[in-house]
Amino acid sequence: MTATFGQEVEDEIRLRSFDEPVSALVVGASGGIGFQLVRQLLAMPTVSKVYATVRSRDARPNLLDLAANEGGRLVILRADLCDESSLEAAAQQVSSEGDHLNLVINCVGVLHSGEMKPERSLRDVRVEAVEHGFRVNATGLLLLAKHVSPLLPRRGRVVFASLSARVGSIGDNRAGGWYTYRASKAAQNMIMRTLAIELRRRCSGLICVALHPGTVDTDLSKPFQRSVRPDKLFSPRRAARQLLEVIDTRTSQCNGRFWAWDGTEIPW
Fold it and tell me: What is the dihedral of CA 51, 56, 61, 66, to 10 degrees?
């Protein structure tokens, strides 16, 4: 790709490092980043099909519009990381269509929801919020991998990616706070590191990576954008493009590692 990290550009993008054609799964396609990943993948002639998961059967109208215009290249699946049966059913549907998955991107995560908010101190810790954070940010990813892994081809380039967060880095933690989000993302990172070892045994070309998208203008980050510099607050479109570029430029030596939106490595 010729694009420079951080630029809002409209020139053609494609996954040049993959064998053609590419079949992709985007988990959490109703979110800002997830939808833009779906849209940009569909714009690539090398991508033959995109499976997009949503929690509710009432998918976002723009996602339904995409599906109506893509002639079967976009398949919308219902899947909830907190509902293992829905993950199993979604994987079975992909399998029934005879597809392998060359690219899997998990975009699902929770930082705040309803009364759940990032903890400023120990006084704010609530067991229900901790359990929910781990269920979405860590356990759900593990269950996703359990049901999706049989769909990964044994040969050829395969990327299994999950959107993590820099605050999940133990080595980079200098501010404290946000116990649930930090710990559940750190747990996700360990899951990704462990998946990278096991899945590589059956998929010789697999690259399993945790990705930090930066601060993106979505519902997840809106309450915390005040202190973010304008040039560091990315639109979902820009964030998706940067993530796809990172994915496309990772090599086999990048397996089991943690990467930021600009291609720099983050310590675990």
Answer: 10
Which tokens belong to 65? 């519009």
How far apart (Å, rounded) are the C-alpha atoms in residues 206 and 158?
A: 5
Note the pLDDT tens digit of each residue in 111-129.
977 778 888 999 999 999 9
DSSP 232-245: GEE-HHHHHHHHHH
Count of C-beta atoms within a 10 Å radius of residue 223: 11
As a whole number of Å, the end-to-end CA separation of the chain is 28
The residue assigned the tokens 């064998």 is 19
| Whole-number CA gyration radius for the chain | 17
* CA distance linking residue 205 with residue 79, whole number of Å: 27
- pLDDT tens sequence across 70-103: 889 999 999 999 999 999 999 999 999 988 999 9
Quote the crossing angle between the two packed helices 140-148 and 179-202, to the nearest 10°. Answer: 20
C-alpha 49/C-alpha 94 separation (Å) is 11
Q: Which residue has the higher pLDDT, 250 or 113?
A: 250
Single out the residue of 48, 72, 43, 17 nearest to residue 240, CA to CA: 43
User: b/e string for 245-259 if b means 16 or more Cβ within 10 A?
Assistant: bbbbebeeebbbbbb
